[in-house]
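testing teh design pipeline on a random one, pls ignore if ur not involved
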């Protein structure tokens, strides 16, 4: 277990989290986003330094920005929105599994880990080797293959989390992986920063914003070693 003390990003002051590790990326103006999704804009609309009574910012971004969750509605037309998620889905024990494969999480790799029904599984891959949040979009990020998604659906896991912007690939297995997981009722967290955690058992809390019939929403996710 390594917990780096360095603050993330310019101007960040890392508070004492009391044993919890923040695995969310920091939302910022101009940050990386999925190519056909809206750009991320965070700008001061009211500004004390310009004579306003308070500082107030305007946020403009896609619902799948930074660390966020996918609802079934993202790929299933009549599926549940994130406002209909049971809170137990994202709070409780979670397992971080490290994957060496530089292309994808495959079903063959998952066979080596005994995955049980109801588990919350987070995949740490080489995506976590760098601070992707302030770099250009990477078309070659490590994703969950359609075969691995089918494996996870068959195992009836409760939740899957990944360390880049999508659980499915950019060049392949995008819709297939999403559909396999979301149709199986598996909740998905994307855009996790797992650079400061290693494989093992954790307690997790992840709460997405409550937006009516939302296909996705930014979330804060934290882990604590068990
Ligand atoms: Zn998403």
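output:
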């Amino acid at each position: 277990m390594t917990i780096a003390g360095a603050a993330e990003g310019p101007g960040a002051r890392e508070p004492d989290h009391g044993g919890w590790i923040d695995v969310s990326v920091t939302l910022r103006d101009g940050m990386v986003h999925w190519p056909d999704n809206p750009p991320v804009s965070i700008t001061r609309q009211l500004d004390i330094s310009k004579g306003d009574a308070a500082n107030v910012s305007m946020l403009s971004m896609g619902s799948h920005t930074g660390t966020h969750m996918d609802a079934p509605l993202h790929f299933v037309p009549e599926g549940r929105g994130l406002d209909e998620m049971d809170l137990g889905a994202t709070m409780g024990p979670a397992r971080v599994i490290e994957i060496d494969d530089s292309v994808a999480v495959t079903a063959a790799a998952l066979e080596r880990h005994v995955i049980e029904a109801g588990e919350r599984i987070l995949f740490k891959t080489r995506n976590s080797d760098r601070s992707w949040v302030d770099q250009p979009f990477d078309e070659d990020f490590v994703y969950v293959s359609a075969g691995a998604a089918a494996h996870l659906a068959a195992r009836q896991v409760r939740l899957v989390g990944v360390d880049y912007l999508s659980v499915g690939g950019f060049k392949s297995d995008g819709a297939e992986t999403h559909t396999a997981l979301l149709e199986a009722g598996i909740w998905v967290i994307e855009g996790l920063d797992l650079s400061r955690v290693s494989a093992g058992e954790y307690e997790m809390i992840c709460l997405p914003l409550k937006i009516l019939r939302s296909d996705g929403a930014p979330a804060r996710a934290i882990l604590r070693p068990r």
